[in-house]
Amino acid sequence: MNVLLLLAHPDPNSFNHAIAQRAASVAARLGHSVTSHDLYAEGFPALLPSCEIPREGDLEPVISTHCSELAAADAILIVHPNWWGMPPAVLKGYVDRVFRPGVAYEFVEGDCGEGVPVGLLRARVGIVLNTSNTAMQREVDVFGDPLETLWRNCIFGLCGVSDVRRRVFQTVCTSTLGQREDWLEEVEQIVVQTLGE
Ligand SMILES: Cc1cc2nc3c(=O)[nH]c(=O)nc-3n(C[C@H](O)[C@H](O)[C@H](O)COP(=O)(O)O)c2cc1C
Q1: Which domain holds residue 104?
Q2: What is the pTM assigned to this prediction?
Q3: What is 81-115 written as a DSSP string?
């Protein structure tokens, strides 16, 4: 299975990096081909230029490569912290530039964007691993857990990936070392259960 792993966090010593490392090593141990991108470390160019907005627009080679990897992925694994109910901007930019028409979704003929698009991704599953400092009850009651809607409906659902498994590790700022070790074990179980099936 081709597994595409995207990590968005600026600090190599962060818990997000620990999550991504554990997920990548478990997926590789299961025999999958893992393509990992640490978007901050790679300096992913996050700003969508106007020339790329049209379906047939000109793409920089680095974006074409990312598009090919996304299209070839059987599973997509995303790791990022909750920042203002959103992913870090570098990951938003990746979605803007790489989840593009003709790669991730398509409008049917005669539809210039007003209708319901057809998802094109071949990936059968998306795994989203988030961290946050807000208790889940407050996240849902006060903020509506926007990351859940964003990944499940607005991005993966729209692009044809209906099996989305999301786990939010919280509350990171008050967690103990033992808690974080348990969470990393859980990351391992999620990857084994999802990609080992
Ligand atoms: C710019 C910024 C915005 C943040 N916004 C939120 C937020 O809206 N909700 C929340 O629970 N935590 C928020 N946080 C806290 C992060 O989610 C938290 O620091 C992170 O998940 C901890 O994981 P880490 O140790 O890998 O960074 C924010 C942090 C930063 C730096």
Answers
A1: 2-195
A2: 0.97
A3: E-BTTB--HHHHHHHHHHS-BTTTEEPPTT-SSSS
